[in-house]
Input
Amino acid sequence: MTTDKTYRLAVLNGDGIGPEIVPASVKILDAAVAAAGAPAIAWQELPLGRAAIDTHGTAVPDETLEALDNVDGWLLGPHDSAAYPEPHKSLLNPSGTIRKHFGLFANIRPAKAFRGGNAIVEGTDLVIVRENTEGFYADRNTFAGTGEMMPTPDVAIMHGIITRAATTRIAHEAFKLAMTRDKRVTIVHKANVLKMTTGLFRDVCRDVAKEYPEVSVNDFHIDAATVHLVRRANKFDVIVTENMFGDILSDLAGEVAGSLGIAPSINSSDTHAMAQASHGSAPDIAGKNIANPIAMILSSAMLLRWLGAKFDDAQILAAADKVEAAVDLAVLEGTVTPDMGGTTGTSEFADAVVAAVARV
Ligand code: ATP
Output
């Protein structure tokens, strides 16, 4: 269906390489939406992160959270909260705050090798479905306070949480996604040691699997999964796992597919969605115009796909197709940033993708 809907999307540039890769993505989305004949996106830039500490005295201003609740989705740049001055450094980081505030429980992280890219495992095309609200990340699994404490300066304690409800919800995301792909799901856990917690995760995923008889299921311990990914990433379809395992595995999968700089992600609930690259703020290369913007660009395309499904909007889905095809074409033509073995700068790559939009 064609809706002619004007989407209102927010832009949060973030820290480190964020102000380089996020504007690049905005430019490409504008070109793709125009080429698909859809109405122009109405962008709204909002304060967040290091810049917001200076202007608003907080990394996550209330006005930003309120504004996000009223848009169709948003692009979030990475954050370098470790470099914030105290007390901001010790608080939950901006990305975690937003995920928690909006209950963005599903973090979908594809790792797909490009033709002409420098994949470690050619043919990699998998998606990690990461539970985003609990598990072993202490900043996310409590109502108040954090799940870490230090009873003495020399003793640190953390806890992890796995619930049937959150696992059921993320398992359905994984199996529904598998139904649109190769119909295979791998559950990753560590049930031989973390028997109750990740054992519950595995068992609940297996229960949900019964509702999807067409999907084949297997499972691996997290340590075994890393080994299989390095050698045989191209044998996986959908991987479902808890929060911390998913974070680590998706960095590995991104690099195996060619570079951490090409690994996109979307964080979503049933009502809100946020495009966010899988990588961090890469302070070591910030400001040098060498960051790879592909992860952020493809995350933005994932957001268009999420909107297209939500609003049954063929035009915005066509725009997402154009973004992806244009990135493929630019990479195939050898226009790649240093992390992929090339010499192209961030802004030059973005220009090449904008030019490619007209040719796909
Ligand atoms: P976080 O914990 O916030 O995810 P991190 O510690 O995993 O961050 P990153 O910021 O993701 O670290 O950086 C890891 C490495 O990957 C760094 O060497 C960085 O330069 C590189 N890197 C990350 N993103 C990109 C990118 N888009 N283009 C090129 N290199 C990148």
In short: The two ends are 21 Å apart (CA to CA). Residues 56 and 341 are 40 Å apart (CA to CA).
